[in-house]
Amino acid sequence: MLANLVVLASIQAVPGPSALPQGPGSGVDRVVLTVGTELTGKIRVDTPDYVEIELSPGTVIGLSRSKIAEVVKATEAAARPGGAAPTEAGWSRTSGYESREDWYVVHDADGRVVGRLHTTLSPTEEGGWRIGEEWSFQDGERTVETTRLDTVDAAGRPASSFHHERVRASTGELSADRVVRAVVEGDTLRVHARSDEGMKTETYRVEPGLRFPLELREELRRLEAGAGGEQTHPVFDPMHGEFERVRCEYGGTRRVETSRDEALPVREIRTSTTRGQNAEWLGSGPVPVRREVAGPSLVAVRVSGEKEAFAAASRVFPPSFRAERDGRFGLWLPNPGWRFVGESGKDEVVAELPHESASLALLRLPQLDAGLGLDSATDAVMRWLGLAYPELLEGDREVGVMRASTPVMAVRATGKTLAGQTTSLWVHVLQVEGEWFASCAAAPRHAFGRLEDELRWMVERFELRKEGFDPEPEGAKAARLPGR
């Protein structure tokens, strides 16, 4: 039987009576195995594929659902005939939390649906809250399933974080399985891990203010619009099995175009780590309507429910990346407010933000001599722009670095469109592998300031080498530009 159990902490004799309550109505959970054995204790993790039960302090056992005949929680047992049903007063709603579940479809940079996400928020028997996520991705003939689960106690303090990743072959057979569970015990963080390579337990001293990924994000979603600010938190993420510093920007608002005649406000949250930046858009409540998983290369979009999540497999979303017609270079979009203009053209990719009358064009310039210097190439680009923007007034030039090694000239300018509108321009000129490229970002002068961060994001992620087109799991690489 022990071969069927995953022991996540060393089993050892516990002197004296167990610290877990015993007897009817005492709060003891039961797990009945298919072989007839019954385990009693406190269930700490309960997912469709996996259950963990704490038998006694420091002794936790994890089991696959396939080995379990029945799970009976104390609250369920009490609610059965002859038992006292739990009351709503027994579940304190920390920070105004309310139970909910939401469904999302996940699409890639080409707009293709590649997976689903099911999120839940539910109370625990101890008066705290459980924040859960179930991910499912199709990767060729493989299916990757991930369960993530954070809990907070009745006071809203982080209590535990759980990650379970399964990879299944086309036959449904499990080919890889990894479980990581982190538990706060006083001033100690105990991390239990099990994978195909074996099991291990590590102990760390809890840093003041330590957070877990899901519960931190849930708290940020409840900050009011207009109360903008920044925070940096120490976070332990069991998915990566490491501590990291997470920078959080919250409270900002933006307008998102839903049709040619309407732009609706959303709240925006941004979280940044050494692996990249992700943004969430929220409506009037704490539920995201759009959530980046790996920047714009992997995005979860909320749908009406489970039925739509499964029915949306053939749905196509607007792409967040486009390559030039011959595949020489490409452009990323920061969010779906932006869209590509027309079809892919030769030597150019153009995007626009319609409700702000903004645009960004990325061009290859084969007519420029490869032997020109950076200043001379910039002179030529600015002369051409003068034909499109009468009264072009060039500001300062500044040299930065793209991809840590490629010099890039940045030029700020103002000009008037042929229709007479005063426009702010931001031009970048650079040479890659003997070929010249230029970009021109343009927006009405009154709007440019609030769009500058998005324009910078786009410029920093220019794909100018074909091998860079396939996004890495953590999103596109960034560059360092003047003024960063």
Name the features.
484 residues, SH3 type barrels, Protein Transport Mog1p, Chain A, 3 domains, 14-stranded antiparallel beta sheet, 7-stranded antiparallel beta sheet, 5 helices, 11% helix, disordered N terminus, disordered C terminus
Describe the fold and architecture.
- The chain is mainly beta and 484 residues long.
- The chain folds into three domains: 1-86, Roll (SH3 type barrels); 87-314; 321-468, 3-Layer(aba) Sandwich (Protein Transport Mog1p, Chain A), CATH 3.40.1000.
- Helix content is 11%, strand content 49%.
- The chain has helices spanning 74-79, 213-220, 306-311, 374-388, 445-460, and strands spanning 5-7, 29-33, 38-46, 50-56, 59-64, 68-72, 100-108, 113-123, 129-139, 142-152, 158-168, 174-185, 188-195, 198-205, 229-237, 242-259, 262-273, 276-282, 288-292, 298-303, 321-323, 330-332, 339-340, 348-353, 358-364, 393-402, 406-416, 422-432, 435-444.
- A 14-stranded antiparallel β-sheet has the order 14-13-12-11-10-9-8-7-20-19-18-17-16-15. Strands 23-24-25-29-28-27-26 form a seven-stranded antiparallel β-sheet, with helices on both faces. A six-stranded antiparallel β-sheet has the order 1-5-4-3-2-6.
- Strand 27 and strand 28 form a beta hairpin.
- The protein starts with a strand and ends in a 24-residue tail after the last helix.
Mean pLDDT: 82
Distance between the termini: 59 Å
Shape: elongated
Structural class: mainly beta
Low-confidence stretches: 1-26, 78-94, 471-484
Radius of gyration: 27 Å
- Percent range for helical residues? 10-25%
The DSSP helix count reads 5
Q: Kindly give the count of domains.
A: 3
- Biggest sheet: strands side by side, in what order? 14-13-12-11-10-9-8-7-20-19-18-17-16-15
Percent in strands: over 45%
